[in-house]
Specification:
Layout lengths: L6 H29 L14 H9 L5 H9 L4 E5 L8 H7 L4 H15 L1 E7 L6 E5 L4 E4 L11 E5 L3 E2 L9 E8 L3 E8 H4 L24 E4 L7 E5 L17 H20 L4 E5 L31 E5 L5 H17 L18 H36 L3 H5 L4 E4 L7 H14 L16 H25 L40
Helix pairs in contact: 3-5, 4-9, 7-8
Length: 511
């Protein structure tokens, strides 16, 4: 049994983990605020009226969640197959399904796409290993080489702040933290201010905090015995081998600010200049008994304005043209669609895409599918690493050592079923590909569907064999005679029967 960290060593490791968490808190908090539509970045003067502030609040034109969803909705793992078989690994049925990962996998991908990376913790459990997804807001991992290392040295997960029931001050807040190393987990409470520092959107210096005194009586230690820190990291991409992934949201923040500013200008123009305004000069305004001005006209479609004064002049200010704001916003959306390889019609960019053929739409989707394919490669390696670790947690050494196993991604490419059926039929007929091997290439088909089809196909094959068996003559049964060739009992054909030609003797082959 491996020895756990003592209180002194844990007191050194935990501050470093919390310092690393504080260092990335500013960036992650900013991204989350934008995703939750809480940031507008429009200048509001101190003398702003309530109406002005209302327009600022309405100027949020947030398309960042759509950028995440457009990629995440194309990612769905449908199986995990060892290198030497065509069936799913036992760990798939034993671990993936009981952990409800069909639904929970989406959260891992979305967090990684948003922040650049996410995590999953795999620990032994009863009756099966337990997989717990985490965003980087809840888990921080330290690697010796943050780009190339497969497993971290240490990791920490943090819980939400909660009050201490028996504390002297009712406002004393603590957070439960759990530290992971290669052999054990350590759970204790620390002051909430150390876990959730005030973030102002700026990076902080990742220097270690002052030493934390750990009370060994308050630490819950548990052995997992996996031999590696049981944390799997999901990287959004490997495009930057120096600083690591940043996610797909942070690079688009300047464009999002521009969208908000353009939308604010559009709303201001709509509010004050989107209609014609009339004016009149050279006329005295009548007043009532209290000295309040009396409006001289009540505008209506069947009324005419007039004045007795020859100096009176009437006129109007024309309404503002909103097309400039709308075009500016559409151009920004087109830039975002191009930068993120998203089809323009996904962002509903005005009339930029209309009356196009199916081939043109497929061409517009090509870049987006390449982007999804790149994320499938990056996330697929992490899924394989996670399931290998789950195999180790359930004492399946074969799964743990199988580094050539691969996940099966569901085909979410937008194609018509008629197109797919025609293409698969040609593959089966012209290239002699087994039809059953093509079932998994039908869009939307799950592993459960394929298994059910295989069972139905086997039942149909069995029924066909039984039908052929019943149609065949019984063994030893006489062959039914040809009508008109019955024997009359003396070896001669019956009367009226056709003559049977004598055997032909080939010269030189006489007996």
């Amino acid at each position: 049994m491996a020895e756990p960290m003592d209180a002194q060593e844990l007191g050194r490791v935990l501050p470093w983990l919390l310092s690393a968490r504080r260092a990335e808190a500013g960036r992650i908090s900013t991204i989350r605020e934008y995703l939750k539509n809480r940031v507008c970045d429009i200048y509001v003067p101190k003398s702003a009226t309530t109406e002005y502030k209302k327009l600022v609040d309405q100027a949020r034109f947030n398309i960042l969640p759509l950028l995440v969803s457009s990629v995440a909705q194309g990612l769905f793992v449908d199986g995990y197959r060892p290198s030497d078989t065509v069936d799913n690994s036992p760990v798939w049925e034993a671990v993936w399904q009981p952990n409800r990962m069909d639904a929970r996998q989406s959260g891992i991908y979305r967090a990684a796409l948003s922040y650049g990376y996410s995590y999953a913790v795999v620990l032994p459990g009863d009756p099966v290993p337990v997989i717990t997804p985490y965003s980087p807001r809840r888990l921080t991992a330290l690697y010796e080489d943050s780009i190339n290392d497969e497993w971290p040295m240490y990791a920490v997960t943090v819980g939400l702040p909660h009050p201490v029931i028996d504390a002297e001050s009712p406002t004393t807040m603590v957070s439960t933290v759990t530290v992971y190393d290669d052999t054990h987990t350590y759970t204790t409470d620390v002051p909430a201010a150390m876990v959730y520092p005030l973030a102002n959107g700026e990076w902080t210096d990742p220097l270690p905090m002052e030493g934390i005194t750990i009370n060994t009586e308050q630490v819950t230690t548990a052995e997992h015995g996996l031999g590696v820190c049981p944390v799997v990291r999901f990287c959004e991409s490997y495009e930057d081998l120096d600083d690591g992934p940043t996610g797909i949201v942070e690079p688009m923040l300047p464009a999002q600010r521009q969208l908000n500013q353009t939308t604010f200008g559009l709303l201001m123009t709509q509010q004050y200049e989107a209609f014609k305004q009339r004016w009149v000069t050279g006329m005295a305004i009548a007043e009532d008994a209290d000295g309040n001005p009396i409006e001289p006209w009540n505008a209506a479609v069947n009324r005419v304005w007039q004045s007795d004064s020859p100096d009176t002049k009437f006129g109007e200010f024309s309404q503002a043209d909103l097309n400039g704001y709308l075009n500016s916003r559409d151009k920004t959306l087109l830039y975002i669609a191009s930068a993120r390889q998203i089809p323009p019609h996904t962002l509903v960019v005005g009339n930029a895409v209309s009356n196009v053929s199916a081939e043109a739409l497929a061409a517009l989707e090509a870049g987006h599918q390449l982007d999804i394919g790149e994320h499938k490669t990056a996330f697929g390696e992490s899924i394989e690493q996670m399931l290998r670790l789950a195999g180790l947690a359930m004492d399946d050494e074969e799964t743990w050592r199988d580094t050539a196993a691969q996940v099966v991604w569901r085909d979410t490419t937008p194609r018509s079923l008629a197109q797919v059926a025609d293409a698969l039929g040609k593959l089966a007929q012209l290239l002699d590909v087994p039809p059953r091997a093509l079932w998994e290439r039908i869009p939307g088909v799950t592993e459960t569907d394929i298994k059910r089809w295989e069972m139905l196909a086997e039942d149909r094959d069995a029924l066909g064999d039984i039908s052929q068996l019943l149609a065949a003559p019984a063994a030893g049964a006489d062959t039914p005679p040809v009508p008109g060739t019955e024997d009359d009992g003396e070896g001669a054909p019956a009367e009226g029967a056709p003559e049977v030609p004598a055997a032909v003797t080939v010269p030189g082959e006489e007996a």
